[in-house]
Amino acid sequence: MRDHRELGSLLRRLNGKGYGAYREIGGGWRFPGFLLFVDHVQGDPFATPSRLRVRVPMEVAGIPRDFYRNRSRKIALEDFLVRELARWIPRLTKGNRGSGHSGRFSVVAFGQCILHRTAVCVTEEHVEAILSVGLPAAGRRILGHEAAEMFLTELPALVRQALTFGSLDKAAVREHVACGEDAEALREQLGEKGLVAFVAEGAVLPRESGVSDRPLREGVVPFVPPPSLTVTLERPNRGPIRGMGIPEGVTLIVGGGYHGKSTLLSALAQGVYNHIPGDGREYVVTRREAVVIRAEDGRFVCGVDISPFIDNLPNGIDTSNFSTQNASGSTSQAANIMEALEAGARVLLVDEDTSATNFMIRDERMQELVAKEKEPITPFLDKVVPLYRDYGVSSVLVMGGSGDYFEVADTVIMMDAYRPVDVTARAKEIVRKYPLKRRPEGGERFGPIPRRVPDLSSIRARTPKGKLKIRATKMAIQLGNSVIDLSRIHQIAEVPQARAIGYILAYLSENARRFAGKPLAEILDRVEHTLEEEGLWPFLPARYGDLAAPRRFEIAAALNRLRTLRLT
Ligand code: ADP
Ligand code: MG
């Protein structure tokens, strides 16, 4: 392997040449204290920046094994190091120097969650990090001296500062790792305690704004658990913690408008992920298999059995194998539930703000006016109990607008000026006092859960010219020539997860034969297993640093919205 001095003289020699000559720096270089791999060299200063990988041997990085001794610690440590790189890049590198991306180092963007990222990987042998760099140029002429400074001065300083234990803020790294491990441990305890979620005392649930996931700073009412729902869970690092446990079964969140109902539900939705210290939701945890359900009119649906909720459509369409290019509010919400169950959901999170009214309720008077034979929809109200009884799937519903749900609820929590109150007994008393004449319409059983066999070759990740094309934003994934609408998928925490979903779908399409004849749930099991054992690498064509592991539910959600999807 060539060494860093050779890289320096090569770069100076390239000064003034055409940009394409940068190709010569591709490959491995030995630096004092680390190895550098130039994995991809951009073709021009405006193209996607070049990709670097630095590998610091553990003897040099010196991170005690304790910080990565189990999976949750390792993921949190890696997440911390990504944030360190991002923090130090603007301080230790000059940045912009020339045309296009010239002179800029960067690392993947991130938010409030501790996620399993590809940007940093810690093993017993080394710490490896993936960075992007814009190789500097004036116009299309190589700025060789600038490049030499970037590689020989800035990069080593960055590696020393952000990737070696000696320079890290020990308290901060310890806190980050403990926080990730504690949240994971809390989530593990939910099942054995018969809970679907836990919200710690003192948690800060509201966010800064509708477009920022950071905590609200002013006028926050910290979370106070109601005494009757208070439980104490154990944290391996920080000891016992009190909070509100939401039991399995059917839970209603009621209360006046603007009293914090949706904020609580959103926090529960994000509680499937771990959060960084200072987020306010560090110890708000929800069962891993909790899925947000909403109406999503206009969405594509491919061969889903929605008959538990919808049958007898006026056009005679078979709802046990329902497809549409343009679902209505209620049919989309039904499809969202059935698909979530197919993918293995154990908890449904539903907010009235984003639900179809006629899917949620059908009251006494409407039953009188519109006969059951004339109404294809069986409201969720009549299915929520059979769903729990038959399949053990719990529901948490924000429902400020209809008391009909008191009948079916096991727990009723009222948000009162951002403070939860257990009003279960009062709600049950009201049920006795004002009995409904409403007739249940859902039958005794919930009905079958879909078990579709997708034809993975109907995923087209390549353009007609055969080029793999994967782009992602918060709103959509572009896969080949198809666009998958993600704008109403609430539990994708970050764009890097969306990007990873794109690569996983591409992988499934390229390996369609291996999965042929397998039901979707089984395909998801396999993908999830690989993610846990080997991370994202097996799904990627190269060492990309801008990805984070998604959940199985969002992989399924993206596949289900891919308009080219076919079943076998
Ligand atoms: P609801 O769904 O009951 O109508 P929201 O959850 O949308 O109410 O909350 C209304 C507003 O109150 C939002 O702007 C939210 O950020 C804010 N909010 C929610 N919880 C708190 C809290 N604990 N402290 C301060 N503000 C809060
Ligand atoms: Mg609301």
What does this structure look like?
With 568 residues, the protein is α+β, with helices and mostly antiparallel strands. Among the domains are: 2-168, no CATH class; 454-567, no CATH class. 30% of the residues lie in helices and 21% in strands. It has 14 helices and 30 strands. Strands 1, 2, 3, 4, 5, 7 and 8 form a seven-stranded mixed β-sheet that branches. Strands 19-22-23-16-24-25 form a six-stranded mixed β-sheet, with helices on both faces. A four-stranded antiparallel β-sheet has the order 14-15-11-18, sandwiched between helices. A hairpin with a 2-residue loop joins strand 9 (137-138) and strand 10 (141-142). Helix 3 (71-92) packs across helix 4 (144-163) and helix 3 packs antiparallel against helix 5 (170-192). The radius of gyration is 26 Å and the shape is globular. The structure holds adenosine-5'-diphosphate (ADP) and magnesium ion.
Summarize the structure.
30% of the residues lie in helices and 21% in strands. With 568 residues, the chain is α+β, with helices and mostly antiparallel strands.
List keywords for this structure.
binds magnesium ion, seven-stranded mixed β-sheet, binds adenosine-5'-diphosphate, alpha+beta, globular, six-stranded mixed β-sheet, 568 residues
How far is the first residue's CA from the last residue's CA? 51 Å
What class would the helix/strand composition place it in? alpha+beta
Strand content: 15-25%
Number of strands: 30
What are the low-pLDDT stretches, counting only 5+ consecutive residues below 50?
none
User: What's the assembly state of these chains?
Assistant: single chain
Task: List cofactors, ions and other ligands.
Answer: adenosine-5'-diphosphate, magnesium ion
Main sheet: strands, sense, barrel:
7 strands, mixed
